[in-house]
Amino acid sequence: MAASESLTEVLTTTEAQEGLSSDSRSGRIGSAEALIPERPAIAPSAQKHNPRNGNCAERTITQNFHQNTAFSPQLWLTRHHKKSHLHPVHLESLEFSRRKQVESMSRSVKASQCLPKAIFSPKRPLSAVSPLCASPSQWQTRKSSHSPLGNPLPSQRKKVTINTLRALHQRDEPITMITAHDFPSAHVADHAGIDIVLVGDSLAMVALGMEDTSEVVLEEMILHCRSVSRATKAAFTVGDLPMGSYEIAPEQALESAIKVIKEGRVQAVKLEGGVEYTPTIEKITRAGIPVLGHVGLTPQRQHSIGGFRVQGKTPVGALRVLEDALAVQAAGCFAVVIEAVPAEVAAVVTKKLKIPTIGIGAGNGCSGQVLVQADMSGNFPPGRFVPKFVKQYGNVWAESMKAIETYKSEVKSRQYPAPTHTYPMAPEEFIEFARLIESKRD
Fold this sequence. Notes:
There is one protein chain. The chain is of the alpha/beta class. The chain is built from 17 helices and ten strands. It has helices spanning 2-18, 22-26, 56-67, 73-80, 88-112, 136-139, 162-170, 183-191, 203-206, 218-229, 250-264, 278-286, 315-331, 343-352, 373-376, 396-412, 427-441, and strands at 49-50, 54-55, 175-179, 196-199, 236-240, 268-270, 291-296, 335-339, 357-360, 368-371. The strands form two sheets. An eight-stranded parallel barrel has the order 3-4-5-6-7-8-9-10, surrounded by seven helices. It has a two-stranded antiparallel ribbon with strand order 1-2.
């Protein structure tokens, strides 16, 4: 009777979940209540942990489990469903499915035997440790892997505003800024407590695979700004104005800035340039849109300055950087990025200004720092050129490669998906399904 008891126990559990009565079952496989055995109770002595023999409670469960899982579809059908005429292929499929389920549960029990004694305390039920000990309702819990990532922040910090940034500057507390180009990259930056998240035009290379920043257009920047802004619940979010969206006239710049704010849902815009763009900055700030300046190395103008070269290395060049920074401050910028400038020069510029400076390759004398997230997290293949000022804090590429290669290997070997990754079907439902197939053949 071990086979029938094992199956009817599973059937009764499933039907109890579905709210089926004995009357509703009688038309298919008959009443199962009379066949339900009582699950063997675990003796109190078996619940004690013995360091020499492992966890007795789990071992007892394993033994009882294997005693009740000697399931044979043919035997069960002979005893409890004699009127059924299933094709042998269907019987083999049912037996294979049951055998895989048994193997999966057995592995779960063996794994739980290695857990520390503290896990099996009286205050913590075994169902919290082993899937075998869990109730069927816990087995049936399903969550989509495509659910939104936008969970509440673990610590609800206040929204960072311009006033927050000014307060940090007054306290001489460094301002943290990092780039993000989509929801996941912005989500992790916001959760990490970054002050400013910049949707930089560097996404042209790190997200869109372009050669340089001059290729990305305004519409693409707005799309990425929308994605980032959905994740930045606390960080102050800035959107870059790409090349070609503000150079023609201040009116064009204002129109572009309004679109980035309204459609991109960011709190400020950034544009490159110094003295020559003061009318443009004034036009945008007079409309009530905060502007983040950018002086020193301006990547959008790399062709006119001889490529990605350090700026301000000569007395004349250093003076030009200072003049540009003072000009954008006078035009209304709330802060200014200083890129690829000698540390000594950037420190002097920072002292001369009343607004914060955000350095990138400009030393630690600035009011804050910014890096491209893909660079600092190591999310790039080996051999890629990385600027001197970048410090790699992680190796996302290597971790991703390891995970994807393991996934590929398990798919090729049919190790994934395992029974634990598939949706179960009650045995009696599968039998009914097979019967319907047979009836259609007739």
